[in-house]
Write a structure and sequence with these properties.
Shape: globular
Number of domains: 2
Radius of gyration: 21 Å
Structural class: mainly beta
Helix content: under 10%
Oligomer: single chain
Number of strands: 26
Distance between the termini: 53 Å
CATH architecture of the largest domain: Sandwich
Number of helices: 5
Strand content: 25-35%
Length: 372
């Protein structure tokens, strides 16, 4: 049963409606600036969902985005549940099947997933998760915009026990929504990325292996892919950057959950003029840059590193990936605090490695990295 929330007519509200609901679920809530490894983070039994689970609410996502972990026991099938908003799922570990359906004929779909798969379940659909492995649990990371939704309608039942379902074929008209993703050229579709090509679909089998990337010259020579989930405004992007290099500091709006599909390194996050937070990461780590905090990502390994950023609603994106905003929202290497370069090189030295950053990048703010 959903928890009651404060009546706006009886007392002043002291929490977001979502926070109030989350805090009464009886499972851990991971707070702070990062989760070292979502694959091993503490969970507890969530009676409503009949599984072990935890919520993640890091600095920078309060009131904007939801993340939570659910664990499916070996060989088990979870009871189905429905949400009245779209939900993105990232497979932290395991192999299984997801069944999605409505009562409409022809709406049912089933698909298999393995480690690091990424997909969306549309609003109004039942979803059921099955662990196909009999010897180990499976862990899923769920991401949604439920905090914003509950600020508009502060009743959990409206989103978690709503009998409404989409009309037959509401999502399949966009494409068979678990078929292979398709490439969309620049200037088509997603208006806030009108100048950037992206991939459109609802199932991406392995974000560590995904190799359909475009050069991102303005971000230290990294490569990236932008994804729009079919039939929705939900988006994400993944950036891949080369061994023993790092990206320039940049900032944007709140609520962007970053999870690591592969690599080893660290990120720095700081509010302008204040002390930096150091976030170590490897596969399974998660962190959220707070609103308008600069943040910067560093690869400490001999292989490319990648991070997957699950986006909040477009209204919260702030100034981020646009070249016209770089003067205010990106710090070029030539203008950064020299301590950053020194710290990066000292961390590499602990591993017997040296930096592969081109020296010219520290001298010329207009330096263009060569394509990797």
């Amino acid at each position: 049963m959903a928890a009651e929330t404060q009546s706006t007519g009886s007392a002043p509200r002291t929490q977001y409606a979502y926070d109030e609901w989350m805090d009464t679920r009886g499972v851990p809530v991971h707070r702070g600036f990062f989760v070292p490894d979502c694959r091993t983070a503490e969970l507890a039994w969530w009676e409503e969902r009949k599984c072990n689970a935890a919520f993640i609410q890091l600095e920078g996502q309060q009131g904007v985005s939801e993340t939570r972990i659910t664990e499916i026991k070996p060989g088990e099938t979870q009871p189905p549940y429905k949400m009245s908003i779209n939900e993105v799922v990232y497979v932290l570990s395991g192999r299984g099947v997801t069944n999605v359906w409505t009562d409409n004929e022809g709406d049912a779909r089933s698909f298999e997933w393995e480690d690091r798969a990424l997909y969306m379940v549309p609003a109004g659909y039942q979803r059921q998760f099955v662990n196909m492995q009999g010897d180990k649990p499976a862990r899923l990371l769920h991401y949604s915009h439920l905090p914003v939704a509950m600020s508009i309608v502060p009743d959990p039942d409206f989103f978690l026990n709503n009998p409404y379902q989409p009309p037959a074929g509401a999502f399949s008209r966009h494409q068979d929504f678990y078929s292979e993703a398709k490439f969309v050229g620049s200037g088509e579709g997603l208006f806030w990325h009108a100048s950037r090509a992206y991939w459109y679909g609802n199932f991406f089998p392995d974000m560590q292996a995904w190799d359909k990337l475009g050069q991102q010259q303005g971000r230290g020579g990294s490569k990236s892919v932008t994804i729009q989930f079919a039939g929705s405004e939900m988006t994400c992007h993944m950036s891949v950057f080369q061994p023993r290099t790092y990206k320039p500091a940049h900032r944007h709006g709140p609520g962007r959950a970053i999870v690591i599909p592969g690599g080893e390194g660290f990120s720095l996050m700081w509010e302008e003029g204040k002390e930096r937070v150091i976030v170590p990461w490897h596969e399974g780590s998660m962190f959220v840059p707070p609103n308008k905090w600069f943040h910067q990502h560093f690869n400490l390994a001999g292989d490319p590193a990648r991070y997957l950023a699950l986006h909040p609603m477009m209204q919260f994106h702030g100034h981020d990936e646009k070249v016209v905003d770089r003067a205010n929202n990106q710090i070029e290497f030539a203008h950064e605090d020299p301590w950053i370069r020194e710290y990066f090189e000292s961390e590499l030295a602990k591993r017997g490695l040296t930096s592969l950053m081109p020296d010219e990048a520290y001298k010329n703010p207009d330096y263009v990295f060569k394509a990797a």
